[in-house]
Amino acid sequence: MTAHSVQRPHALSIENLSLEFPTYAGAVKALDGVTIKVGNAEIVGLVGESGCGKSVSTMAATRLLPEGRYKITQGSIRLFGRDPMAMDEEELQQVRGKLVSTIFQEPMNALNPTIRIGQQLVSVIRRHEALGRKAAEAVAVNILADMLIPEPARIMQAYPFELSGGMRQRVLIAMAFSCNPGLIIADEPTTALDVTVQAAILRLIQGRARRTGTSVVFISHNIAVVSQICDRLYIMYAGRIVESGPTRAVLDRPQHPYTRALLRCLPERVRPKEPLESIPGTVPNLLDPPPGCFYRPRCPEADARCMEKPHSTALPGGQAVSCWQRAGHPSHPSSEVPS
Amino acid sequence: MKAAPLLSVENLTVRFPGATNWFGQVTSQVHAVNNVDLCVLPGESLGIVGESGCGKSTLVQAVIGLVRLTSGRVLVDGHDFAGANGTLKRDLRQKMQIVFQDPQSSLDPRLPVWRLITEPLHIRGGMPAAALRARAEELAVSVGLRSDQLDRLPHEFSGGQRQRIAIARALSTDPELLILDEPTSALDVSVQAQIINLLLKLQRELGLSYLFISHDVSLVRHFCDRVAVMYLGQIVETGPAEAVFDDPAHPYTRTLLASVPSLENSLPDVDASLTGELPNNRRLPAGCYYRERCRSAVPGCELPQALLAVPKANAESAPRHQARCCLHMPA
């Protein structure tokens, strides 16, 4: 990517990234050739089961992984055209919160339990914006009100333990949006919450992102949640992207056998009491992954070609799939691709 | 005409001391479960849904005797469970077993699988080790584990396999009722599907009854014959699963169903200020518990609401579908 390209650089561009964690038992290959592009003002979903590398990809991009404990074996990361791996600690602190901010899953662990909400918000705002205490407080109250928090002035004086889980998560979202970052990474922000609160929080994130033109990477294991707010989806399996594309296309015409199985596992699309489709076998051990396609041992369609690593094939309509069975003939007989 | 219920809960109330004063006297109470009535017939699945903190877990823990009831009765096969003693209590206890949410913490990390599975039989006593082992093998195979895995420790298994171990342990006393407290919430969807299929298979083979707690509405709809929707320790709506989910009568059930993420629908237009949170259960609201959050509240809602049959065009299912709302008007 050239620095002076005509187009604005992607908010986040992860290019063919492979990352491993050295352990005594050998290298755990957490990511293998992952490519993720997040355009400006785009909401992108990252879906997969636990351990598939969703969080690792975004934590690598914000350099939140423990230093010296991981190794990038190939590929590159660009945040708004800049390389986070080349930044020093001071630059990183400028970038985190201002350019990129993260909403974590557990709001209780992400907030300091001994400091009032207001003070935590104000310190974030003042770190990045040249504002006095009074002005920063006004900004904080405003953004809390924007997150539909009742009595924001009172909440400013509260400690995190005084708030419910949903309220704490709203405070964290307010904090993430407080310095108008260009990119928000939402790492399972609603997993610990009830469905009614979840719906409200999803609306808040989506509404604010659309209004301010913020890009969002939304990480979740729940494909239904992701499908409701994202423009595009990436489906991950065992450290690789197996399928990507516009949300509706992926849900209506899933191409990769794993995506199809994932959708059929959900009770929503099955008659009551009928057995749900489950995926036989288990996720491969990333210390010693099998050759070829990682999904091959569990895949009903696997054949001899699958012993080789599949490459990503672009399909019409913006979808891309890493599967040999779709490589030659995208209109597979069992999938209805409209003409 | 109807089969006698296997489990029936009458007017169950559970309160916890909330705060004590200087002298140790209780000054406020947490009203966890308020006057709950429910029953489970042999071979049926009853689902309990509700937000966190609505008292679903406390309810089942009171049913199985892990929490002391403040008032009310729990009848197992027509016998009072809480008041039973000696052999009767022991026999009744064998009929109910519980599977918890997180197998990581509900399995002893130092016991091999065969000991874990037969722990309830070991406690009951009277079986030699060889017989226990044989029984463990039989149970392990029935939940989809291999017999060569019997000597392993829980940490050697994945989350889904650990939940299978917990299910095998619950089955060891040949219970008639399994209480499933969020059995798949800690699992990935593909593994969740395996566990749900296993539970459905066991129900067909053994004729088990399930009391299934979950916050996942689509899972309850798939799994259960009947559902009870809880709000603030109270059942606000109950009935056959399809009646409650397809034609909800209570405004809270409607909000809950509208918020469920779905592949087919876009993000629901749920008013965030109304979805709010559960009110404090230290001081119960007068009248309808849901009144403050209810969009369709009218005069009359400030009176206590009774669980009444929902008027239905189809008279057959009518008496079984009940809601605690004075409006009773389907949307």
From TrEMBL, chain A:
GO molecular function, one term: ATP binding
Domain ABC transporter: 12-263
InterPro entries: AAA+_ATPase, ABC_Ni/Peptide_Import, ABC_transporter-like_ATP-bd, ABC_transporter-like_CS, Oligopep_ABC_C, P-loop_NTPase
Keyword field contains Endoplasmic reticulum: no
A single BP term in Gene Ontology: transmembrane transport
Keywords: ATP-binding, Cell membrane, Membrane, Nucleotide-binding, Transport
Localization per record: Cell inner membrane
Entry's family note: Belongs to the ABC transporter superfamily.
A GO-annotated cellular component: plasma membrane
UniProt-recorded name of the protein: ABC transporter ATP-binding protein
Organism: Phyllobacterium myrsinacearum
